[in-house]
């Protein structure tokens, strides 16, 4: 099996089909028509000759398919179409030995550096983490750099076959080391995966008395409880009217803290003066993300009505009219 002139099942199937077609064509010929008009006493060779002709024709017509199948199995690789990428398959011909990574988290997190010795090169980190890499290379070269796949590259210090480099993690993705070897071209390691650790926005809960109206000189106590995975930067009570911010009142937040429970007293006249009407009170809690910017969590609005001076004047007039009628 597999040792004949046509070794593959596909080729054998093609042969069987051609022979079957030739046999069908031969059987469709009327033998009487093959006899000569004269000399019926002699044996005619027209029938065998026609059969042989049909067999040769079937082989000739099928030769292109045989050649195509044979070339696909044993011929040269087809030339890729214009514009096709030649980097679909990553060529890995460089190894990192005695790999040592030091992960330095962003300063705002307050976390200590993490040392990874004998690591595979794959790791988890926050965006903005600085990576200090030391390793021995499996071959020598003239220069080296760290390539963030699909991003920037960082030049490395190369001494013989030892490499040192610092680079920053922009987010989730992959990195690899590329070695320049002069006329021999370049060598590269496999791509090492980086899974980004999320920096989530703060958690927040707010409590306040259920009121529909608050006098301008009255007090509303608003309690807030909030926490963040790395740190809080500020917590504020925001007074809005029609989607526009009228004022902000900060909570007394300690420095360098990841959690806070506190209260502010909202007195309309003290914070927004004579402004009033339909108001919305919202508490905002901000984290301390210094890489992508602080993220904020907003509470549901506390909706209430603060009478204005005009409202109070109208109420006084209405009260006088009511007294006069009685």
Structure description:
Helix content is 23%, strand content 37%. The protein contains 5 helices and 18 strands. The protein has helices at residues 9-27, 31-34, 46-74, 268-272, 309-325; strands at 96-104, 114-117, 123-125, 130-137, 143-148, 153-155, 157-159, 162-168, 173-180, 186-188, 192-196, 203-207, 220-241, 244-250, 257-266, 277-287, 296-298, 302-306. Strands 12, 13, 14, 15, 16, 17 and 18 form a 7-stranded antiparallel β-sheet that branches. Strands 3, 5, 6, 9, 10 and 11 form a 6-stranded mixed β-sheet that branches. Helix 1 (9-27) runs antiparallel to helix 3. It is elongated, with a radius of gyration of 42 Å. The N and C termini lie far apart (118 Å).
């Amino acid at each position: 099996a597999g040792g004949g002139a046509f070794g593959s099942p596909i080729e054998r199937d093609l042969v069987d089909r051609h022979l079957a077609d030739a046999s069908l064509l031969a059987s469709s010929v009327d033998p009487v028509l093959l006899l000569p008009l004269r000399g019926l006493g002699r044996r005619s060779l027209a029938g065998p000759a026609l059969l042989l002709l049909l067999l040769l024709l079937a082989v000739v017509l099928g030769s292109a398919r045989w050649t195509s199948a044979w070339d696909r199995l044993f011929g040269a690789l087809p030339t890729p179409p214009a514009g096709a990428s030649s980097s679909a398959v990553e060529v890995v011909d460089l190894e990192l030995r005695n790999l040592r990574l030091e992960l330095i988290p962003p300063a705002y997190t307050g976390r200590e550096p993490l040392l990874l010795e004998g690591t595979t090169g794959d790791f988890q980190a926050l965006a903005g983490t600085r990576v200090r890499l030391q390793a021995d290379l499996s071959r020598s070269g003239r220069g080296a750099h760290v390539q963030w796949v699909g991003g920037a590259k960082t030049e490395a210090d190369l001494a013989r076959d030892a490499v040192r480099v610092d680079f920053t993690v922009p987010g989730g993705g992959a990195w690899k080391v590329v070695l320049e070897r002069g006329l021999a071209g370049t060598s590269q390691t496999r791509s090492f995966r980086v899974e980004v650790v999320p920096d989530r926005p703060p958690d927040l809960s707010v409590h306040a008395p259920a009121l529909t109206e608050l006098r301008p000189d009255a007090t509303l106590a608003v309690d807030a409880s909030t926490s963040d995975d790395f740190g809080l930067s500020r917590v504020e009570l925001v007074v809005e009217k029609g989607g526009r911010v009228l004022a902000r009142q900060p909570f007394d937040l300690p420095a360098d803290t990841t959690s806070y429970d506190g209260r502010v007293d909202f007195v309309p006249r003290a914070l927004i003066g004579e402004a009033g009407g339909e108001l919305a009170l919202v508490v905002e809690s901000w984290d301390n993300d210094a890489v992508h910017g602080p993220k904020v969590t907003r509470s549901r609005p506390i909706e209430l009505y603060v009478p204005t001076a005009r409202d109070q004047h109208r109420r006084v007039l209405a009260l006088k009219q009511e007294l006069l009628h009685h």
